């Protein structure tokens, strides 16, 4: 089976073959062996080329999110051959984008405040789940319009954490003064 997904805005194509003991994944000319070890709640532990790896898996409305130690992968439901990582290309001018919790966890650190400009891909908060820290990133550049959580809050998968909107120029302000 061929799977396409996005990581950091870059499309990745992998060929996946199942067998009774696990999966073989061909990625960029390299073959990886994946064998399941255990499943506990949203944590899946597997052996990747002989070494154990734990991933947190969250099932959201329209995608499955797999959080690995160094990368988070977003897979669109119902389309294993056309998965996306950033839920589309973002809203149009003047619209807002809600940043949702990729999984259940506790807000460890909030790195932005309302009114602050953020760029696409910037880490806006750190979510802790099962003693693993996950970076939650802005999916578009803009201005943080609302912060709906605080450090220590426990959140559910898909819960809205922040709202990022387009930057605006106040009425009567024609430019930037030095």
Offer a concise description of the structure.
The chain is mainly beta. Helix content is about 0%, strand content about 55%.
Task: Write structural notes for this entry.
This protein is mostly beta strands. It folds into 2 domains: 2-76, Glycoprotein, Type 4 Pilin; 96-165, RNA polymerase II/Efflux pump adaptor protein, barrel-sandwich hybrid domain (OB fold (Dihydrolipoamide Acetyltransferase, E2P), Beta Barrel), CATH 2.40.50.100. Helix content is 0%, strand content 55%. It has no helices and 16 strands. The chain has strands at 2-7, 10-19, 22-27, 30-40, 43-48, 51-59, 63-67, 72-76, 96-100, 105-110, 117-118, 123-129, 132-137, 142-147, 154-155, 160-165. The protein has an 8-stranded antiparallel beta sheet with strand order 1-2-3-4-5-6-7-8, with no helix packed on it. The protein has a 4-stranded antiparallel beta sheet with strand order 9-16-14-11, with no helix packed on it. The model is unreliable at 78-94 and 168-178 (pLDDT under 50).
- Encode the helix/strand succession as letters: EEEEEEEEEEEEEEEE
Structural class: mainly beta
CATH architecture of the largest domain: 2-Layer Sandwich
Give Rg in angstroms.
Answer: 19 Å
CATH T-level topology of the largest domain: Glycoprotein, Type 4 Pilin
Give the DSSP E fraction (strand runs of 2 or more residues): over 45%
Calculate the terminal CA-CA distance, rounded to whole Å: 57 Å
The 3D shape can be described as globular
Mean pLDDT: 74
Strands across the major sheet, in which order?
1-2-3-4-5-6-7-8
Total tally of structural domains: 2
Number of beta strands: 16
| Helical amount | under 10%
Low-confidence region ranges: 78-94, 168-178
Instruction: Note the total helix count.
Output: 0
In the CATH hierarchy, what is the class of the largest domain?
Alpha Beta
Largest sheet: 8 strands, antiparallel
């Amino acid at each position: 089976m061929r799977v396409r997904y996005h990581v950091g805005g870059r499309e990745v194509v992998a060929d996946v073959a199942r067998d009774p003991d696990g999966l073989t994944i061909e990625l960029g000319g390299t073959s990886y062996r994946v064998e399941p070890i255990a499943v506990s709640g949203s944590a899946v532990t597997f052996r990747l080329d002989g070494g154990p790896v734990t991933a947190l898996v969250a099932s959201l409305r329209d995608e499955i999110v797999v959080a690995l130690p160094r990368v988070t992968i977003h897979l669109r439901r119902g389309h294993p051959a056309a998965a996306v990582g950033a839920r589309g290309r973002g809203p149009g001018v003047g619209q807002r984008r809600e940043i949702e919790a990729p999984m259940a966890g506790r807000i460890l650190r909030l790195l932005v405040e309302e009114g602050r400009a953020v760029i696409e891909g910037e880490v806006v908060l750190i979510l802790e789940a099962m003693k693993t820290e996950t970076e939650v990133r802005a999916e578009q550049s803009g201005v943080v319009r609302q912060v709906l959580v605080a450090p220590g809050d426990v959140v559910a998968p898909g819960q809205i954490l922040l709202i990022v909107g387009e930057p605006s120029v106040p009425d009567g302000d024609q430019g930037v003064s030095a």
